[in-house]
Design goal:
This protein has one helix spanning 59-68, and strands at 7-13, 18-23, 26-40, 46-58, 74-87, 93-106. It has 140 residues and is mostly beta strands.
């Protein structure tokens, strides 16, 4: 039985997505997202704390991000956390935790209230997409 592993992150892209196709037919888009959190400290001063998260999208989601997401885009990622582990050159174990984005939305920009694209199926220039199995990591 799978245990629960889910995450929702709303933030802004720190840089343009990086799209790669490491082997034919396998598409990956790497994203860097900044998430702001505001709170008041014990003295009543406003504090702005920024956290940075790395994420990856696969398949149709990767193509969507590559085509429509740009540095500064407000974005919502829904997915799961993934940990990769490996042995480095010194023989020590290293690891990296990142978000595997299974659902992606480009959000409204607060200053303009415009929506560039919320979901690929709502984009007029895109043809209707076929239902893609989750195993191929394309849930919009």
């Amino acid at each position: 039985m799978n245990q629960t592993n889910s995450i929702v992150v709303d933030g802004n892209l720190v840089k343009d997505p990086v799209f790669v196709e490491p082997k034919t037919g396998f598409k990956v888009c790497r994203l860097s997202v900044a998430v702001n959190r505001w709170y008041k400290d014990e003295n009543g001063n406003s504090v702005d704390k920024v956290s940075f998260f790395e994420a990856e999208a696969y398949g149709n989601s990767a193509e969507f991000c590559n085509k429509y997401a740009k540095k500064g885009s407000p974005i919502r990622l829904v997915g799961r956390l993934q940990q990769d582990r490996w042995t480095n050159k010194e023989g020590k174990t290293d690891s990296k935790v990142y978000i595997v984005a299974e659902h992606i939305e480009l959000l409204k920009r607060p200053e303009t209230n415009e929506v560039k694209a919320e979901k690929p199926s709502e984009l007029p220039e895109e043809p209707a997409k076929e239902q893609v199995p989750v195993e191929e990591a394309a849930v919009f």
